[in-house]
Recover the amino acids of this structure.
């Protein structure tokens, strides 16, 4: 065992820098490059890494000391033979002077001095203070380019990074827009059009939902063979004419039943009071495709409607949306939303939750599928659904149970289940 001294490294024009943190303890085993202390000047702060491995024998400085290049930080008990030799050779130089509180003494020595505070493997080099500063501003220090030696990140780097990400105008903080490296027209003919007003309004809401809500999307194939046979056999008793009811009306009825059985899906998070709001009403939102963009009006008290009434309400509300005659208030106050692409095509997708709601049901186009039933291969009508939910409120198991419940409601006993 030999004694190795670790000294304050060359830090450029740093003079009388304050020790703001001691990151190791006496008796602690440390590895090469482990951070030992944090020094802070009025310009920035740096961590001083260990140049050797070993056990910390004696720490020679205290928080609040002012130090300079060559001051003794600590001595290590180390097994490194080559370093042992260097220590012995330098013994005569008597470097073991203590740094006194607020009055550093420079130790002139030929001991090995750490050259640059380097980054530890897999982490970005930045002092705890800078990391905390970055965290407070919502930035990840790993993404910030460091301007100091070995890419170390300073407080100034954090500020520059934040400045590059946002603009502040009229008291509002706005995210800076990413600029393409080359303009589109450099690659061929283009046409410029205004973004429709509805899309401009819904865009930020979609971004907020997608980035702030931990989405889980669960897919399910529901066997709706019997339900579809029933739906296509509906006719008016007096006129003998077929009655057309969209599958969406049946799905809505099943969803209301599921919301009653799983109240977590008919809820919202109150971020101010940190509580869950359970809604006792059943107002379903429907994604409506309009020439002006996507709209999501609510149909109120769907639990009190028959399947036929739901179908009619859907037609009426989507017409109001397409003609831009819907009242603004009708876009608020929903339980859960259905986004049906069944009339267009496609199977599974990942619907985005419409906050403050916590779940959304995506519906694809039903298709025929050959499946094995009671030992026989038969053709069945399958409805693909995709349920997205907020994982902060709804667990995966509950999501799966919700899908199973919906399958039962729309399955072969649908008439019995939906009548309840
Ligand atoms: N599988 C198979 N066929 C389906 C179906 C399904 N899941 N859902 C509807 N259909 C059929 C209907 O029965 C109807 O058939 P007929 O013309 O033979 O009667 C046809 O498809 C057209 O349906 P529709 O889409 O006009 O009506 P709807 O009641 O199913 O839906 C509405 C109403 C307003 C939801 C729909 O018009 C709409 O706008 N859908 C788009 C929603 C959307 O954009 N979602 C994405 C949001 S994220 O960007």
């Amino acid at each position: 065992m030999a004694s190795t001294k670790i000294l304050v490294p060359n830090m450029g024009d740093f003079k009388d820098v304050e020790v703001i943190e001691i990151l190791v303890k006496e008796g602690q085993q440390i590895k090469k490059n482990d951070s030992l202390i944090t020094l802070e000047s009025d310009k920035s702060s740096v961590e001083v890494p260990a140049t050797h491995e070993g056990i910390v024998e004696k720490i020679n400085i205290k928080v609040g000391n002012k130090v300079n290049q060559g001051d003794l930080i600590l001595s290590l008990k180390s097994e490194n033979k080559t370093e042992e030799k260097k220590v012995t050779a330098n013994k005569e130089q008597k470097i073991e002077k203590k740094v006194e509180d607020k009055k550093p003494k420079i130790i002139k020595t030929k001991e090995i001095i750490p050259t640059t505070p380097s980054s530890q493997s897999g982490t970005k080099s930045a002092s705890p203070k800078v990391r905390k500063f970055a965290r407070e501003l919502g930035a990840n220090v790993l993404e910030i380019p460091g301007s100091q030696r070995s890419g170390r990140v300073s407080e100034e780097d954090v500020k520059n990074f934040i400045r590059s990400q946002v603009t502040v105008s009229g008291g509002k903080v706005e995210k800076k827009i990413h600029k393409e490296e080359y303009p589109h027209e450099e690659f061929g003919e283009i046409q410029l059009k205004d973004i429709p007003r509805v899309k401009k309004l819904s865009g930020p809401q979609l971004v907020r939902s997608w980035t702030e809500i931990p989405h889980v999307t669960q897919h399910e194939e529901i066997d709706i063979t019997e339900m579809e046979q029933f739906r296509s056999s509906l006719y008016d008793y007096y006129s003998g004419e077929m009655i057309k009811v969209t599958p969406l009306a049946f799905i809505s009825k099943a969803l209301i039943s599921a919301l009653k059985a799983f109240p977590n899906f008919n809820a919202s998070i109150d971020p101010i009071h940190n509580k869950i709001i359970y809604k006792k009403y059943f107002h379903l939102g429907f994604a409506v495709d309009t020439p002006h963009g996507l709209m999501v009006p609510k149909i109120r008290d769907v639990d009190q409607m028959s399947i036929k009434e739901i179908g009619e309400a859907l037609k009426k509300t989507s017409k109001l949306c397409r003609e831009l005659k819907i009242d603004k208030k009708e876009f608020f106050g929903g339980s859960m939303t259905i986004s049906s692409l069944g009339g267009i095509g496609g199977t599974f997708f990942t619907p985005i939750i419409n906050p403050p709601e916590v779940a959304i049901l995506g519906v694809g186009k039903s298709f025929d599928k050959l499946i094995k039933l009671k030992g026989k291969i038969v053709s069945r009508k399958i409805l693909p659904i995709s349920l997205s939910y907020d994982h902060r409120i709804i667990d995966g198991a509950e999501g799966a149970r919700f899908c199973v419940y919906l399958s039962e409601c729309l399955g072969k006993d649908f008439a019995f289940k939906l009548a309840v």
